Amino acid sequence: MNWNKPWFQFSILLLLAFVWGSSFILMKIGLKSFTSEQAAGIRMLTASLVLLPYSIKNLKFLQRKDLVNLLIAGFIGSFIPAFLFTKAQTQIDSALAGMLNSMTPIFTLIIGMLFYKTKMKWLQITGLILGFFGAIGLITSGQDLSFGKINSYALLIVLATVFYGININVVKARLSHLSGVQITSLAFFFTGPAALIYLATTDFEPVLASANWPIHFLALCTLGIIGTALAMLLMNSLIRYASAVYASSVTYIIPVFAICWGVLDGEKINVLHISCMVLILLGVYLINRKK
């Protein structure tokens, strides 16, 4: 694959945005029968099971010096945020969740500059700001978003974006000698047992009382396989070849696909939507500009 080519990196970024943009729908479906904790646990367990053959195959690449960083990639980068997001979405609307999720590149930059000596040029910082405001504009356009409704659950998503920022910098700085498949499969090798143990302690009787629980379970399995396992394989591969901030800018593009889903559902697109999309794409372009 042409991971070093800017056009290929951008294509992966678009694919990730599409996958994660669709994940919110699957999460919402799963929560109709399962608790937020069960939904997150099923998501992580499914992803770990799908990756298990690769985990076993890549155990020979597991070194003691990488253990802590792989645990960070698994638990800080995926496991804990999965629980934080599902819990938060039981109390806040998707528009606010999307807005807060767009803080990921900012935290990625701050953590990178503070702890990993990340250097950013003013052109890239400008791109970061443009992308952020474009994402916020796209998320809030046409939404009845009341900031008075913001509660402590919103802080869970903010914490998740901080964790994402930590994980992206760790993968970029400490695990770049491993491939994306190796990083992801070895990281999920540790999260799988934790998810299984947690699910074994929960009560599934109320779930089985729901008539449509198999459909909701299938949605969570799809979320785990595509929205977690496949997505993290692509994300960790992208981080190796692109800058950490550029990889995290996927959260700016996610609202673009949310609008596209709305158009397919009969919603109308206006000049503000188009302007915000252009702003986002310009911002992402400037972030990854080499010169």
UniProtKB/TrEMBL annotation:
Q: Which Pfam families match?
A: EamA
The protein's UniProt keywords, in alphabetical order, are: Membrane, Transmembrane, Transmembrane helix
Q: Where is it found, in Gene Ontology cellular component terms?
A: membrane
Has UniProt tagged this entry with the keyword Hydrolase? no
Q: Does the keyword Ribonucleoprotein apply?
A: no
What does the UniProt entry say about where the protein is found? Answer: Membrane
Q: How does it sit in the membrane?
A: Multi-pass membrane protein
Specify the domain of life of the species encoding this protein.
Bacteria
Q: Which residues cross the membrane?
A: 7-27, 39-56, 68-88, 94-115, 122-140, 152-171, 183-201, 213-234, 241-264, 270-287
InterPro entries on file: AA-Vitamin_Transporters (IPR050638), EamA_dom (IPR000620), EmrE-like (IPR037185)
Query: Which SUPFAM superfamilies does UniProt cross-reference here?
Result: Multidrug resistance efflux transporter EmrE
Q: Which residues form a coiled coil?
A: none
Segments forming domain EamA: 12-139, 153-288
| Cited Gene3D superfamilies | 1.10.3730.20
| Family the UniProt entry places it in | Belongs to the EamA transporter family.
Supply the name of the protein.
Answer: EamA domain-containing protein
Tell me which species this is from.
Labilibaculum filiforme
